[in-house]
Amino acid sequence: MSETLSDITVKLNVDQPSTPVNMGVLAIFTKGETPDVKSYYTLGDVQEDFAQNTDLLAVAQGYFAQKYHGEKLVVITYSESIAAATAAYYSEGWEFATVVGEDAQTDVVTLANYLDGQSERFAVVGVPATTEFVTTKLDSFVDRFEGVKRVIIFASGKTEAKALFGAGALIGALGNEQVGSITWKFRQIGGVETTDLSVTNIKKLHTNKIFTYVEKSGIQQTSEGFTLSGEFIDSLHGDDWIKATIETEL
Q: Which helix (H) or strand (E) holds 214?
């Protein structure tokens, strides 16, 4: 057999094939007593089940506030290992995932490493767009994800709640666009406040491959569109779409 030089390697998963539609579905991982998974189609339904989970609701509110969000929101409850829960509920039709709760900062790193091992999907993290974060927390935060490729970190708002809203809103606004039709830079997101960070601090975010929400020439927009590894989100999302298409045809 002759060898072919290629720029693309496709790692297939025919046991748990992805589906090349609704590539903008977000999963929220939250800790609870009993492992479970449930899909939600309205914010009201989420509020009925998680009235006391303010972090989860903040993400859900941002997601459902966007006109063209994915067809559903998946909530995955895990009791112990987030890696085990990710494996158990991997076929629930989600492309992006975030973690809320008191163990979120540790567990999202585990989630991100798991997805990196699968060479598909994205872990999403919302952080406050504050001077305090940039000057005192940024370096140690980024270091926790060393070597991980598929992490999207979006800085928005001045509080944890607004940062979580921003993470959900980012995916709700852009994740379900036709794959390959957009870049994630220069995009508008409903309900997210533009940052008042200095140019120096925004550049420091960009140097560390974190982007934010800014106003340029009177237009509110995302400042960049890359993952923590520096690769563009739309490019990796396109890889996932190609892979999902091939898997479903096997």
A: strand 211-216
